Each structure stands twice: as structure tokens, then as C-alpha cells.
Design the sequence.
């Protein structure tokens, strides 16, 4: 799993991680010395002394940031859970409202960069719930902890210095650097080095502000996708129906023309024609018994934003729903579909009503909720998975 994919999964609360003990006195002194070194390195790299001092003063051990940086997931999220959470009725409704509110900005960004406005809105919705989800970490302290814990020190040191340079340059204030444990932040969740390279001042106020400025955030995401190879006017792809007993090629790297795929018996589920020399690949994210998709170059551009097929497919599908198209026709190979955000919140309330102490219900599925789900599954004689799915949701009813 890439750093960016792990960031997204942790932000969604899709799996739990083990707890790491706080450092003793010697380790605390070592952290302090390491942070002093980072402060000096940032100043040498061009960060103003005032910014470096303010950002890296009183850095304390951040157990959560270190734990997230070191650990692998205990629970692999099925794509039907992932997409049920990311593409639910509320996100579709909120996205349509956002498109009306920022119609002029989306039109200008589409004209300037060639990126479909529905795709841009969907990416914004997936990354930050249309600007409502900022992230819980103060990035300079989180990154300092990760570097000093020895997790990819060169990479994360570079991201830390890049973040502080954005403040020194005047694009942002230190207080704006709130985001993920690994440094992604802003309404479109750019890593600091990506922000340096690709952020744009679309509202022309002299600052590239992806935290407070919706025009800057949307145009910067459009700039990213354009640089990643997005082709103006081309679709991301299509949901398709496979012929019975299909055993032909599949996978993102097995490309053929749309006409070739039609000759193999594939058909678009919406009845549209598959013809032409545009290259596309067949992806089967849940195997041959789940939904199938033909995807092209623009899908790969989305995937470059976050190296996850489920992520790119979520944006693609959300963009279709914002456009007014129906949900997926293919059925996921599960008897227990995933839960929306509203249902996840209700699941937590049901756990509480059934005597499982998870604290306050907030809809975010973290380690405490997953442990409670496992306990509930044991109580009801179910297979113990920790999965926030429809089976335990119904059992708790």
C-alpha cells in the first residue's frame, strides 16, 4: 500500500492499528535533539528562522502519527465497503449543491485545464467532503515525529521542509497546516511537495491557498490531472457487461481498442456503443463475478492522484452520479453490502444500545469500534471479522 493510499484509508477509519507506547526519558531527549536538527535543516533550506522556530517548538511525542507511519492494516477493506462509504446519498446531494454554488469556478477551471467539472467535484468530495474534512494532525509536529522515528526520513523531511516553505513564502499560515499524519492537507489533500509544484493562484489574490480558497483548490487539482495526462473530452470509462463464461484478458495493462472489446462480447450496461480505436483496459475490482469496467487514459490520471483502483473508481462513479446517471448495474459478490456514512453512525449507536462501550458515536470506524464489532460478532455467534458491514448492522437491530 502506498503512503497516499494508507493516508486515505486511515482518514476513512477503515482499519485498526496497534498502540505504540510513549517514549521514556531517553527517547524524549532523542526526539528533542532530532527536532533541533530538523529546525536547522529547514533554515538552511530557505525556511525563515521565525517560521521554523514557531513550527518546531514544543514538539511532543505523537503516538498516533508514529503508529500510523509504522503499521500495516489489520483489516483489508472490501471495495464494496469502500465505495458504499465514499459514494452515498449524502455525498451525491452535497456534491450537486456544491456544483451549483461554485458553477462559475468549475466552468473556468474546466475551460482552463480541460478537466470535466463533474470529475473535479467528485475528487473534491472524496478528498475532503467538499472542504468539510480538514484532517486532525498539525503537520509540522506529525512529520517531525515520523522523521525522528526513522520512517522514510529523507522523504518525510522533504515534505516537512516543503510545508514550512509554503508558510515562509506567504501562501499559508502555520495554523493552516492541519491534515493527515503523513502531510496531505487542503481541500484537495495535496502533499507539500505536490503543493509546491502544482498549486495555482486561481482567484488571483497573490497566494496559492488550497485550504481556504475553493477556486485555488479546484484549479490546482485540475492542474494535477492535466499534468497526469488527462485528455479533454474523453470519458473515464464505462461499466460493461461481460459475455457468459468470459475468460479473456483483464487488468489495467491489458489494453485493446473499444472495437476489439466489443468483438470479445463486452457490452456497455447503458446500451451505448463500444466502437472506435480508443484504447481501454478491462478491470474487475471484485473478480469476474462483480461489476466490470472498461477504463481509459483518464482513469489512469485519476489513479495517479492516489495509486488505488478503488479510489479512482469511487471518483469516477461519484462523477457519474453527480451527472445524474444511475448507480452500478453489476452486483458486488457479497450477501452483505457496505454501509453508507449514515448507516455507520447508526451502527455505532446500535453498538452502544447493545451495551458495547465505544464512547461517542461519530460515524468514524476506528480501533475501538472495530473491537466492539468483533465482540458483538462473538456474542451473536458470527464469524469474527471486525467489518462494519450489513450483517452485524442487522444483528444489532
Sequence:
Amino acid at each position: 500500500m502506498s503512503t497516499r493510499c494508507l493516508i486515505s484509508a486511515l482518514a476513512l477509519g477503515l482499519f485498526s492499528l496497534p498502540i505504540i507506547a510513549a517514549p521514556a526519558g531517553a527517547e524524549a531527549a532523542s526526539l528533542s535533539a532530532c527536532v533541533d536538527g530538523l529546525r536547522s535543516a529547514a533554515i538552511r533550506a530557505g525556511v525563515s528562522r521565525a517560521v521554523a522556530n514557531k513550527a518546531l517548538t514544543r514538539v511532543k511525542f505523537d503516538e498516533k502519527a508514529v503508529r500510523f507511519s509504522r503499521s500495516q492494516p489489520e483489516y483489508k477493506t472490501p471495495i464494496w465497503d469502500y465505495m458504499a462509504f465514499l459514494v452515498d446519498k449524502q455525498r451525491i446531494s452535497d456534491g450537486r449543491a456544491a456544483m451549483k454554488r461554485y458553477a462559475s469556478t468549475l466552468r473556468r477551471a474546466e475551460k482552463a485545464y480541460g478537466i470535466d467539472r463533474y470529475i473535479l467535484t467528485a475528487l473534491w468530495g472524496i478528498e475532503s467532503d467538499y472542504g468539510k474534512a480538514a484532517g486532525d494532525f498539525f503537520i509540522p509536529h506529525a512529520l517531525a515525529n515520523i522523521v525522528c522515528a526513522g520512517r522514510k526520513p529523507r522523504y518525510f523531511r522533504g515534505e516537512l521542509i516543503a510545508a514550512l516553505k509554503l508558510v515562509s513564502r506567504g501562501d499559508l499560515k502555520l495554523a493552516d497546516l492541519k491534515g493527515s499524519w503523513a502531510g496531505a492537507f487542503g481541500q484537495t489533500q495535496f502533499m507539500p511537495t505536490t503543493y509546491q509544484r502544482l498549486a495555482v493562484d486561481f482567484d488571483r489574490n497573490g497566494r496559492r491557498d488550497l485550504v481556504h480558497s475553493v477556486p485555488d483548490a479546484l484549479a490546482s487539482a485540475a492542474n494535477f490531472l492535466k499534468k497526469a495526462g488527462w485528455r479533454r473530452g474523453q470519458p473515464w470509462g464505462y461499466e460493461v457487461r461481460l459475455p457468459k463464461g468470459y475468460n479473456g484478458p483483464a487488468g489495467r495493462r491489458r489494453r485493446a481498442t473499444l472495437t476489439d472489446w466489443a468483438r470479445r462480447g463486452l457490452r456497455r450496461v447503458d446500451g451505448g456503443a463500444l466502437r472506435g480505436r480508443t484504447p481501454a483496459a478491462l478491470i474487475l475490482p471484485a473478480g469476474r463475478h462483480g461489476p466490470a469496467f472498461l477504463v481509459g487514459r483518464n482513469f489512469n490520471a485519476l489513479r495517479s492522484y492516489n495509486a488505488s483502483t478503488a479510489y479512482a473508481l469511487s471518483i469516477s462513479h461519484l462523477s457519474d452520479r453527480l451527472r445524474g446517471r444511475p448507480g452500478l448495474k453489476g452486483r458486488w459478490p457479497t450477501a452483505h453490502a457496505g454501509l453508507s456514512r449514515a448507516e455507520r453512525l447508526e451502527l455505532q449507536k446500535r453498538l452502544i444500545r447493545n451495551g458495547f462501550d465505544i464512547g461517542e458515536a461519530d460515524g468514524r470506524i476506528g480501533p475501538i469500534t472495530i473491537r466492539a464489532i468483533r465482540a458483538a460478532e462473538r456474542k451473536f455467534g458470527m464469524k469474527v471479522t471486525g467489518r462494519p458491514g450489513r450483517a452485524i448492522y442487522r444483528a444489532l437491530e
Q: What stands out?
A: The radius of gyration is 22 Å. The chain has a mean pLDDT of 92. The beta strands are 137-138, 178-179, 237-241, 255-257, 267-268, 279-283, 292-295.
